[in-house]
Amino acid sequence: MKIISLIFLAFLCMGCTAAPTSAPSVTPATAAPQPTVTTISEDNYEIYAWVDRPEPKLDEIVTVSGSLVKNGAHLGGIGMWMFWPAEDGGPVSHECVSYMMYQRGICQIIVKDYAPGQFVPVKIRVEYHDQVFTTETGFTPREN
Known about the structure:
The protein has a domain at about 45-140: Immunoglobulin-like (Sandwich), CATH 2.60.40.1940. The chain contains one helix and eight strands, in the order H-E-E-E-E-E-E-E-E. It has one helix at about 1-15; strands at about 45-50, 60-70, 75, 80-85, 95-100, 105-110, 120-130, 130-140.
């Protein structure tokens, strides 16, 4: 008896839907807008590197800074790598990774066991939007 009552209610509910009063309107398709070509000027990049002590004494700390500028604005939030040779001139170089914040990235080098009077180059590498920027700075240790 319950099954028959449920079937009767189902048929009753199906008859309660309102029929549409008119046929649905058809909106004609419009052509997709065509993109316009805009010429964009090329960006101008500049990379800088510097040391706070170009001629440090042995056992002093040299702070190496680097900055990437795009169209006159300093970039931040990107990685910067610095490489410099081992004190003994061996094949393995030192490396520092810095995160550029507040217009620059920094690394610190302890000037120890480098030959006084011999220039120590520091290479800087920055990768930004599939481009690689490099520059170099350095320091010349002096005797105490």
